Amino acid sequence: MRYRPSGVEALSATPADGWSVAVEQPGGPLVVNFRNAEGRLSRLEATWSNGPTARVIEK
Question: What is the pLDDT of residues 2-35, one digit of tens each?
Fold first, then answer.
């Protein structure tokens, strides 16, 4: 990803074997969801808020 004060841009997202990837940018944070066939989720939420921020959620 690329962070800029105007927002965050996805550059690439390559999932590991057995995982899929979906990139979303619903007008707010950049969201990258990695999922496997068993339903496990690894989610990255990236924003620019007075500097770069990121949060990872594992389910």
Answer: 999 888 999 999 999 999 999 998 778 999 999 9
Task: Give the alpha-carbon dihedral of 23, 25, 30, 31, to 10 degrees.
Answer: -50
Are 8 and 21 within 8 A, CB to CB? no
Are 44 and 54 in contact, with CB atoms under 8 Å apart? yes
Read off the DSSP letter of residue 18.
T
Q: Look up the pTM and report it.
A: 0.84
Say which DSSP state 12 is in: -
Residue 41 near residue 33, CB atoms below 8 Å:
yes
